[in-house]
Amino acid sequence: MLSVKSLVETCSLPSVPSKYVFPFKSHDTTLAEESEVIPTIDFSFLTSGTPEQKSNVVQEISCACREWGFFMVVNHGMPKKLMDDMLQTSQSFFDLTEEEKGEYRGEQLFDPIKYGTSFNASVDKALFWRDHLKVYVHPHFNAPHKPSNFREISQEYCRRAREIAKELFKGISLSLGLEGNYVEKEMEIERGSQLLVVNLYPPCPQPEVAIGLPPHSDHGLLTLLIQNELGGLQVQHSGKWVPISPLPYSILVNTGDQMEVLTNGTYKSVVHRAMVNNRATRISLGTANGPPLGKVVQPAPEFVDGENRPAAYRGIKYKEYLELQYSKELNGKSCLDSIRV
Ligand SMILES: O=C(O)CCC(=O)C(=O)O
Ligand SMILES: [Fe+2]
């Protein structure tokens, strides 16, 4: 199937082709007040703050996870140049010819490197205004061989993103009143999976009728996301859509479905979507940090209490959960709903 980038570049489209028209409902356009902003977490307090600063930031993580499931991390130590280089080499990947990128075209969910469009075009009802590159980067590192600097840059970027995720897992564990290494140990993060997802949203002639990514929650434990200067991400909060305008060089973080299952719903995954624009290409780059693919994730005993609080989800291998998500259209939290007890 034609990539959106090729569609835009080869045909001068006056309007969006009908298969890209997204069935928005009227309330889908309700935006939250501008005063609604996601919490900001100062990462440096977590790693090198005074005991008081650390305990405050753990408290802030607790509120952010309970009330939002989405927050912006600053002072995270990821070098700015590395963030710029990562976005740049990702853009260069999409700038390769379709023939060059075609090597990585595939429909198999667990292909180590997969270039494509939409989400799963064989089940998506409407197509999404989005091309993507998905690379499994941990525990086995993979990278496309073009552009030539992609391997080196993405390896360093993903390594650092994993380090940041590990510290956040510590903060999250403490915020749940557990030992700092709880999530890391329980979810075997040392050999856990990390999936790099690059989203390319070319300019769209009718941004109000198409969507980049429909409302969905992320499948993993924790997603770290960066983007170029163009907005488009919106997070669902108290029934309204909150547009996200991240500070330059901040990292957006959100809790995913595995976190909701592990904590038996204490920390929920959050629904978000990507809107498109008619000005320029937006690029976003996420790393989904999860347990090993073979790990069965189920509500942990710490969050289950007999009949007072029974397990609300059935245990399922992370790999099978990914298969389940890929077998249906991407639609809010429908995948998580299907494993609710
Ligand atoms: O493009 C964005 O801002 C969001 C991307 C996203 O939600 C995802 O890749 O799962
Ligand atoms: Fe997402």
| Anisotropy-based shape | globular
Give the strand line-up of the largest sheet. Answer: 1-2-10-7-12-5-4-3
- Uncertain parts: none
CATH architecture: Sandwich
Class derived from helix and strand content: alpha+beta
Q: For the CA atoms, what is the radius of gyration?
A: 19 Å
Descriptive tags:
341 residues, Jelly Rolls, eight-stranded mixed sheet, four-stranded antiparallel sheet, globular, binds 2-oxoglutaric acid, binds fe (ii) ion, oxidoreductase activity, acting on paired donors, with incorporation or reduction of molecular oxygen, Fe2OG dioxygenase domain-containing protein, metal ion binding, IPNS-like_sf
Describe this structure in words.
With 341 residues, the chain is of the alpha+beta class. The longest helix has 26 residues. It is globular, with a radius of gyration of 19 Å. A hairpin with a 2-residue loop joins strand 8 and strand 9. 43% of the residues are buried. The chain has one domain: B-lactam Antibiotic, Isopenicillin N Synthase, Chain (Jelly Rolls), CATH 2.60.120. It has ten helices and 14 strands. The strands form three sheets. It has an eight-stranded mixed β-sheet. Bound molecules: 2-oxoglutaric acid and fe (ii) ion. The site of fe (ii) ion (FE2) has 3 residues, from loops. InterPro entries: DIOX_N, IPNS-like_FE2OG_OXY, IPNS-like_sf, Oxoglu/Fe-dep_dioxygenase_dom, Plant_2OG-oxidoreductases. Belongs to the iron/ascorbate-dependent oxidoreductase family. One of its GO terms (molecular function) is oxidoreductase activity, acting on paired donors, with incorporation or reduction of molecular oxygen.
